[in-house]
Every structure is written in C-alpha cells, then in structure tokens.
Amino acid sequence: MSEQNMLDGKVVVVTGAGRGIGRAIAIMAASRGARVVVNDLGGTEQGDGADQIPALEVVKAITDAGGEAIANFGNVANADDAGQMIEDARSNFGRIDCVVNNAGILRDVIFHKMTEEQFDSVISVHLKGSFNVSRAAAPYFREQSSGSMVHMTSTSGLIGNFGQANYAAAKLGIAGLSRSIALDMSRFGVRSNCISPFAWSRLIGTIPQSTDAERERVKKIQQMTPEKIAPLAVYLLSDQASDITGQIFVVRNNEICLMSQPRPIRNLQTSEGWTPETVSARVGPAIQSSLVPLERSGDVFNWDPV
C-alpha cells in the first residue's frame, strides 16, 4: 500500500477540525484517501460563540486538492449533535470508519479560584465530548467489526501543570476512557488510542508567560506546528496500525514517545494486617525513594525537541 492511499475508502470524523491540530489531521487524512467530516463549532478558545467559516475553509482546502469533505458545525458536548456528526458521515459517504476526538476549550485558573462553571464546561467539551462522539460511532463499528478512534489527551493530565485542574482532569479522564473503549471493543476489531500533542495552537497560546522560563517554553512550543501531529494520527487510523490499541503517545516536533501507563512500583505486605501506626513506621519510610515527584509537564519533558 502506498502512502498516498493509506486511508483509501475510510470515512473519518474529525472534531475541532477548523483550526490547529484538527485542521492538520483532516487535511492529511484526506490527502491519504479518506473522506472527511470536518466538525467545528467555531467558538473561541474559551468555547464562546460560533463561526462556520473555519470548518468551511478546511472543506474548501480539501476539495480544492481533489479530496472529499463536508462541514459539520455541531457541539461535541451535546449528544444529539455528536450523533448527527456520525449520521452526516453515513448519509454523505455511506459509512463511518474513524473518529478523531480533538475539539477542546480552555478555562485556566488556579484551583482555589476555579468556579463550578469553569470546571464543568471544560469537562463537557473534552471528556464528555469524546464520549459522545465515540459512543455515537460505536454501534456502527461493532456492526462492521472495525473502527479506529484517536483521542487527544495532554501531559497536563498525564503529568501535571499549574492552573489547569479542569483541563488536566478531562485529559486524564480521556486516557481512561480510551483504555476502556479499547478493552470493551477489542473483540469487535475496534481500536482506541491517545495522542498527547505538543503543538502551537490557540489553546496553547493561552499559557501564562509571566516568567522567563514560561516565555522560553512557549517560544519552543511555537516551533512545533500542528502538521507535526497529523502523521501519527493518520497512521493510528489506518489498518497498518491494526495491532495498536489502548496506547498513549506523545508527539513533540519530530519526536514520537510511547508513554508508560500506571503499574505498581513498590509493594509491602504484612501477615498481621496494617494499623495506622505500622503504616507510618514501615510504609512511609519504605516508599520515600519511589514517590513520584510533584512535577509539571515541562519538568519531565525538559530536553529540546529535535
């Protein structure tokens, strides 16, 4: 199979595809033979407003290059809208093969000042939105015994970051959602994987830049374009990745990292059972060298990307 038809015959829904990473994935998927539903509500980074122009511009870019695409302007946080995205794929292209859950918003604020609305809105778009679209596609994937889902997670959730409790909770939740989908649907030939992207986008553009270190970090991220994320996403959607599911990848510029997932790292047991006092005396000292440091994403990914 040549690279130019890796997704030949596949129908792909990409959410949040009007700009940034979603746009890059939609265009590259189309260039590899996919027929694409370009979903984008067209809101701001905070999720306000609606604008059809970004999605329509991506559709035009695809069709001008000889590909096939249609626009959808639904809100992933609404289950009915998510269902319509899948139905648009089926009614226009006859089937649905792949879902890319990319839509997202940010409402960054330090935790003790975060409101319920700021928490709920981010969870609704990222986590609930990923559930809504995946769930709408799942019955068709099961029926045809095939399907691939790619979800966008973040090192803000996998590792940590300041001022992003809502975003981190949603993104770590997406990793758990993806793993569960992979487990539940593997018997139907359905795959589910996560990508944690480092790429300059409108969302990343809201990162605070109050210190020299933060400004330098943002400067480096600006060099990582959304087009760097698309190749891995297209590969994971394709049949060439048929043996890859339940995994988490990080993409930084030209680097692709396969991430570890939680496993036991230290074990203590006693035949007498534990009391608070024996936990204090034995467990506390024994685990000290194995405790995970309180680090941020930038502390762990502290080398310059290639």
UniProtKB/TrEMBL annotation:
Ranges for domain Ketoreductase: 10-206
PROSITE patterns per UniProt: ADH_SHORT (PS00061)
Gene3D superfamilies: NAD(P)-binding Rossmann-like Domain
Domain of life: Bacteria
InterPro entries associated with the record: KR_dom (IPR057326), NAD(P)-bd_dom_sf (IPR036291), Peroxisomal_Beta-Oxidation (IPR051687), Sc_DH/Rdtase_CS (IPR020904), SDR_fam (IPR002347)
Name this protein carries in UniProt: 3-hydroxyacyl-CoA dehydrogenase
